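Late entry, evening session. Most of the bench is empty. Finally got around to the prediction I had been postponing all week. Sequence below, unchanged from the version circulated by S.P.
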Amino acid sequence: MNVFELSFKALMCGDINEKIERVDQIQLLKNTQGLNFQASYPIQPVEFPGRPSKPNLVRFQSIPQRNKTDLGMIKTIHAICHIEFNAINLALDAIYRFREMPDQFYQDWIQVAFEESKHFQLLNNHLIELGYQYGDFDAHNGLWKMTHETDYDVLARMALVPRVLEARGLDATPKIQKRFKDAHFDKMVSLLDIIFNDEIGHVKIGNFWFHYLCKARQIDPIEAFDGFIKKHIGEQLRGPFNLEARKLANFNQDELNYLEAL
């Protein structure tokens, strides 16, 4: 079956349960070697991927700072849940959009989409246990905004989405876990352990393909990364950085030195 058509339909699906089912189907077909990675399918910009009508999307600056009350912690869970939902779409878009890559590229991002879907379900189920659900609070669109802005080049996408936006999750998770532990949201600590370990793998995948493309194009990885940061972010990356987690995700020493020098 045409992996690009299946991924596009999953990407544009706005119903959460149907999107999850479509991702599960793609994962199953990957595991049974039922996907055609050489098929043709039209490529188009996707400014707005499929998503439910809720949550309301607002500017990041419009979201009040979440405090350490129970409701504040629940809003934090919702924010992480929203990130995981968006991450399903960004993985699907990477599969759909970038052609003439090795089959392993698509297999890797199918695995990422499947794992992000599982993360979303874990978090949304926990919200339901707490009396809430995904969509109950406002959210922002920063993760998809960067995905859309890098749709012109697979190298830009690999540089900035897994290696910057997802890697920030590696930096932030230990502190967020401490907040949940201090607030006696112990289940979130264990859920974030699962997500954290998977996200190391996702960033590692981004690192692999970023370096693969730099080598194929005969360009310096540090210069390329710095150029994309200046073009799309326009400011230095903000630390502190979880260097140990980034090492596990295969950031090399030159890249860690680059980050520490910022």
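Two things to note before I forget:
The mean pLDDT is 95.
DSSP finds ten helices and no strands in the chain.
Will write this up properly tomorrow.
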